[in-house]
Structure formats: structure tokens, C-alpha cells
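Hi C.,

You asked whether I'd gotten around to modeling the 268-residue construct. I have! Everything is below, sequence then structure, no commentary in between.
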Amino acid sequence: MASTAPPLPVESATLDRVELSDPAVASDLHLSEATPRTLARFERFVATEAAAHTELVILGDLFEAWIGDDDLGSTIGRRVAAALAAASARGQRVLLMHGNRDVLLGAGFCAATGAQLLADPVRARIQGVEWLLSHGDAWCVDDHAYQKFRAQVRAPDWQRTFLARTVEDRRAFIGAARAVSEADKRTKSLEIMDVAPSAVDAALRAAHGTRILHGHTHRPGVHHGHLEGVAVERWVLPDWDFEAKKADVRGGYVTFAGGAARVVALSA
């Protein structure tokens, strides 16, 4: 049963620099009780494919929505937490980043799973190669309405007030916000909802980096270019959806060999 005490406000992420030896990196799983096949595939992924790697890294939107760590008693909360706790118990390092759908993941969830929270973005040294990892939504700077909303829900005062509300009130708020978001998507161009090249360039300059990996946009791919005469690359992680017919399912993750990224597609 879910705790009756409201969760504490989300604490600041503690890791803004991380060393990774053999990570499996995924994002945008959007797990919920309404996506049972995707949830089951996630559990199998954690127990099988991901288990072959030293670290499991999820760059945001693990959940379709997360109303606070007192939701660990829900079916979706219990099953996801159990899968990640099993990964931690076998010695795998579990690292999570907030997405736009699960910004309220906090200390309670980390305590239940053995996970650590990452800053966004986070500088990662992977097999000796420098990467910048992010959920990616902070770089969608042309979507001014979304950026205003993003700043609001990440403010500690807003989170404190929101988490003091009842579970039912929070679920209703999230449902209404999602409905507005879906309606907005139908009127916005894909370019506005994608990351802005100028924002990505600024992030690379600040990190003194040339390689970047993010999710959020649901537009997986690899982009090559140059920044001030230096070759740069941007990898976009695939989102997951195993609810559709077998031919239409999608999902995957990224692994590394010698610091170079490789996308691994997941079968149904």
C-alpha cells in the first residue's frame, strides 16, 4: 500500500560527472499500467540484455508519469522498482536522469532501487571517451510554452506544494497536463519540438565536448557535423512502444565499444 505521508521535495541530482565502463543506455520508455507489453519488455530487458553490462543508465521518462515517491505502492511503481532493485542487488550500477514525465523521482525511489540520480546534462567518461548525456528537453528552446512549464515543475517551491496535495489531486493534475500537452503537439511544428542546434552547440562548448547522447524527441538517429572546425556527433535514443503489432513495435538502447556508440534494437 502506498504511504500516506507525502514524499519529500525532489533533491538536487548529486552526480554531474560520472565514469562508466560498460553502460547500457536507454530513455523514453514511458512505462505505465496502460502499457503492459512495454512494461514486461522492460522487465525482461533489465533481467537479460542490460544485465550483461556494468551500468544501466536511463536518461529520463522511465515512467509515463510519476506523481511522487509515495506512488511506489502502485502496481507500476512496485514492478519497476523491483526490476531496478534486482539489478542493483546483482552489483549493477543503476543511474537515472529526470525526464519531463518523471521529474518527481526522488530520494525515496532511489532508496527503494539502489539507483543514483544524474544531473542534466551530465559529463560522462565512457571507456576513456568524453560524452555529454542529457534527457534533451532543456534544448528544445524554441518551444517557449514548454520551457516555461519545465521551469515551473522543477522549482523546489512548486514541487513542495504539489507533493503536499493528495495522490488523487496529483493524478488529476498530471492527467490534465498530459491532455493539454497532446493537444499542443497537434499545433506545433516538429522543428519547435526538436532540440535547437544552437542550444546543443552551447552545451557542447560549455562541456568542451564533441559527443552528445540524449532522448526526449522520439526522433532516433545519428547526426554528424562540425563545431568551430571540430567534428561533433549527436546520438538520439529511440523511444519504446511494444503495445503495437509486432511489425510496428519499437525500442532499443545504446552500448559502447572503445567509447564509440552503437544502437541495439530490441525485438518484441
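If it helps when you're writing up: The chain has a mean pLDDT of 92.

Thanks,
B.
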